[in-house]
Design brief:
One of its GO terms (molecular function) is electron transfer activity. The protein is α/β, with parallel strands linked by helices. About 45% of the residues lie in helices and about 20% in strands. α1 crosses α6. The protein binds flavin mononucleotide.
Length: about 180
C-alpha cells in the first residue's frame, strides 16, 4: 500500500470529478489516497508526506490555475523526487483534431518547462461545458471558445467530453508504475 496525493485546480468542478475518479481507482487497489482542492488547503498538501503525487488542472483562457503553477514551482523538489503524474482538462482535448491536440500538448509543455518538472505520466482529457453554471459573460466567452473547439454552442444544455474509461486507464497505469517502482526500491 502506498500513500498517494492528488492535488487539483478546478473552475466548475470537472477536474474535481476526474481527481475523485482517479482516487477511486487507486483506492480500489488498496492505496491510501488524499484528494485536495488547491484552493482549500495548500499548506496541508506537502508532497513529502506521500509516496506518489498527481497534480491536475483545467485550462481557463489558455492557462492552468495560477495556484497549481505556484504549487508545482514551490514544491518542485518534493514533486520530482517521487513518482509523479500530471493531468489536464481542456476543450482542446475534447476534439479529434491535430491542431487542437498540439494546443493541449503546448499548455502542458509550457507548465512543465517553466517549472522544470518531468512527470512520469501525463494525462490529457476532454473537459466539459457547463453552460448552466456560467454567468452571462462567461457563457458568451465559452460560446466563442466552443465554437472554434467542439462546435457545441447550444447554451440551453451542458456538454461533457471526458472519457471516463481513459481516466480510469490513466489511473491504473500510474498505479501500476508506482507499485513496480516502489517494490524495487
Ligand atoms: C472561462 C473558461 C475558459 C476556458 N478556456 C479554455 C481554453 O482556452 N482552452 C481550452 O481548451 N479549454 C478552455 N476551457 C474549457 C475548460 O478547460 C473545460 O471546461 C474544463 O472542463 C474545465 O474544468 P473545471 O470545471 O475543472 O475548471 C475554458 C473554460 C472556461 C469556463
Amino acid at each position: 500500500m502506498s500513500r498517494f496525493l492528488i492535488v487539483y485546480g478546478t473552475g466548475e468542478g470537472q477536474t474535481a470529478r476526474v481527481a475523485a475518479r482517479i482516487g477511486e481507482v487507486l483506492a480500489e487497489r488498496v492505496h491510501e489516497v488524499t484528494v485536495i482542492d488547491i484552493e482549500d488547503a495548500e499548506s496541508a498538501a506537502a508532497p513529502e508526506q506521500f509516496d506518489a503525487i498527481l497534480v491536475g488542472s483545467s485550462i481557463h483562457v489558455g492557462a492552468h490555475h495560477e495556484a497549481i503553477r505556484e504549487y508545482v514551482e514551490t514544491n518542485l523538489s518534493g514533486v520530482s523526487t517521487r513518482p509523479s503524474a500530471f493531468f489536464q482538462l481542456s476543450l482542446s482535448s475534447a476534439v479529434d483534431d491535430e491542431a487542437r491536440r498540439a494546443e493541449a500538448a503546448r499548455y502542458v509543455d509550457d507548465l512543465l518547462e517553466a517549472a522544470d518538472w518531468n512527470p512520469d505520466r501525463i494525462g490529457l482529457f476532454g473537459g466539459a461545458l457547463r453552460y448552466s453554471k456560467y454567468g452571462f459573460l462567461k457563457r458568451l466567452l465559452m460560446k466563442r471558445i466552443a465554437k472554434n473547439a467542439t462546435g457545441d454552442v447550444d447554451t440551453s444544455r451542458d456538454y461533457e467530453y471526458t472519457d471516463w474509461d481513459e481516466v480510469e486507464a490513466f489511473a491504473a497505469d500510474f498505479a501500476g508504475f508506482v507499485e513496480r517502482r516502489l517494490k524495487n526500491e
